[in-house]
Specification:
With 419 residues, the chain is α/β, with parallel strands linked by helices. It has two domains: 12-37 and 290-418, Alpha-Beta Complex (Aspartate Aminotransferase, domain 1); 41-285, Type I PLP-dependent aspartate aminotransferase-like (Major domain) (Aspartate Aminotransferase, domain 2). It has helices at 12-24, 26-49, 68-81, 95-106, 124-128, 158-165, 187-200, 252-262, 278-308, 333-345, 402-418, and strands at residues 85-89, 112-115, 144-147, 170-174, 205-209, 228-232, 246-250, 312-314, 325-329, 367-371, 383-387, 393-397. Strands 1-7-6-5-4-2-3 form a seven-stranded mixed sheet, with helices on both faces. Bound molecules: pyridoxal-5'-phosphate.
Length: 419
């Protein structure tokens, strides 16, 4: 284990556990590095095949007609994701906004969308119209919503999905667990869901919320039968460098429809200036597979290390990964708060502030969050949060570099020990 003396002081017990954890993770890390090597090659090949040059890195103003940087980024991103086409824009304000554009781009009054992975991510409930005020949800526009639950073991209910697809314009799959404890769905499983849905209805559109999943495996959902997917650039595919934005990728005709919703009918993707954002979006994509690998390694290390210290990690350190999230059961409010204080102390920005639980709007219990990030709210950067309620689990994600991610986890454990 690295000698941090003169910089940080950790108890001998923690250092020994960290050393043991890294030893246990050796094979896991080798797998992660192999995935990163493949994905970096995919990205590099996409850059060179599209002859990216200095002219693509500068932006436009005003209407942004003929912005070759924007149009080429779409093509590079699509190739890297194994998609026919993509729409990558800094003016998607968040993951939720990006998913919303895809819904409204593709669905029409009278259509039905069926979530086949149970309840969607919290913020999607108001978009769909499951809860919230009349602010223009899908439901208000005459688009109905149904839900097929996952089975008790976390597996998709294939026969129910096949049946539901018969009357569904769109099947909606959420790849990552988000802030629940259900398992995340690997790309292969998403492929099986797509097959089941198409058996029921070959015309149904399979749409994937791909947030937190990009570059964790060697392929993405659109290579295994999904028609469309979307995600946030302040998560995986922005590589920790894109300052904002989102992407939609998949079938060309569907991406086109989304472009008409992002701007307006008739204009679609032909307008939309990029200001000075192109360079950051290209650089972020270039970095993304490597930054994602650092985050996944940090996550596996945290799971192994905290398990040695007696906590339960979900997923376990050696489980196959399809996203960058891990939940650790800490068992008490004091430990949850101490853990978050430690993560904050190990952050490059705002390390001196102390996170406190607060009553977040929309949540039943107080929530504590640790995030000291270069990009506000970016969760490919090391961050941790959890509701202050039993079993006092913390959701942990990110780590732009493995070594600093590991340090953050060590500081969190030390803070729990000092408590
Ligand atoms: C983050 C996330 C979203 C929403 O993204 P925001 O940027 O927070 O709006 C949706 N679904 C999943 C699974 C996510 O992880």
């Amino acid at each position: 284990m690295t000698d941090y003396s003169g910089l940080y002081s950790f108890s001998p017990k923690l250092l020994a556990a960290a050393e043991q954890a890294e030893e246990k993770c050796r094979e896991v890390f080798r797998r992660i590095e192999d995935i990163a090597a493949y994905n970096e090659a995919k990205v590099l090949k996409a850059f060179t095949d599209h002859r990216v040059s200095a002219a693509h890195l500068v932006g436009t103003t005003g209407y942004g007609y003929d912005d070759i940087g924007r149009d080429t980024l779409d093509a590079v991103f699509a190739q890297a994701m194994g998609a026919e086409d993509a729409l990558v824009r800094h003016n998607f304000v968040s993951g939720t906004h990006t998913l919303t554009v895809a819904f409204f781009g593709v669905l029409r009054a009278g259509d039905t969308v069926v979530s086949v992975t149970g309840a969607p991510y919290d913020t999607m409930e108001e978009v769909i119209g499951i809860r919230g005020e009349k602010t223009g949800s899908l439901r208000e526009f005459g688009i109905s919503y149904r839900q097929v639950e996952l089975l008790d073991n976390g597996e998709p209910d294939y026969p129910a999905i096949e049946e539901a697809a018969k009357t569904a314009k769109m099947i909606y799959i959420q790849r990552s667990r988000g802030y629940s404890l259900r398992p995340s769905l690997c790309v292969k499983t998403i492929g099986r869901i797509a097959q089941a849905a198409k058996r029921g209805n070959p015309d149904t559109i399979v749409f994937v919320d791909n947030c937190y999943g990009e570059f964790v495996e060697k392929s993405e959902p659109v290579s295994v039968g999904a028609d469309l997917m979307a995600g946030s650039l302040i998560k995986n595919p922005g590589g920790g460098i894109a300052p904002t934005g989102g992407y939609i990728a998949g079938r060309k005709d569907l991406v086109e429809l989304c472009a008409y919703r992002l701007t307006c009918p008739g204009i679609g993707r032909e307008a939309g200036c990029t200001l000075d954002q192109n360079r950051g979006l290209y650089l972020g994509l270039f970095h993304a597979p490597s930054a994602v690998a650092s985050a996944v390694k940090t996550s596996c290390f945290a799971a192994a290390f905290l398990e040695i210290l007696g906590y339960r990690a979900n997923p376990r350190y050696d489980a196959p990964r399809t996203d960058i999230i891990a939940a650790i059961e800490l068992g008490s409010a004091e430990k949850l708060c101490a853990f978050c204080r430690g993560i904050q102390k190990g952050s490059p920005v705002d390390s001196h502030v102390t996170p406190e639980p607060w009553a977040m709007p929309g949540y039943a219990d107080p929530v504590i969050m640790a995030a000291g990030t270069f990009t506000m709210g970016a969760s490919l950067e090391l961050s941790a949060d959890g509701p202050v309620r039993p079993p006092y689990s913390v959701w942990l994600q990110g780590g732009l570099t493995y070594n600093t991610g590991k340090l953050g986890i060590l500081l969190a454990a030390q803070e729990m020990e000092n408590r």
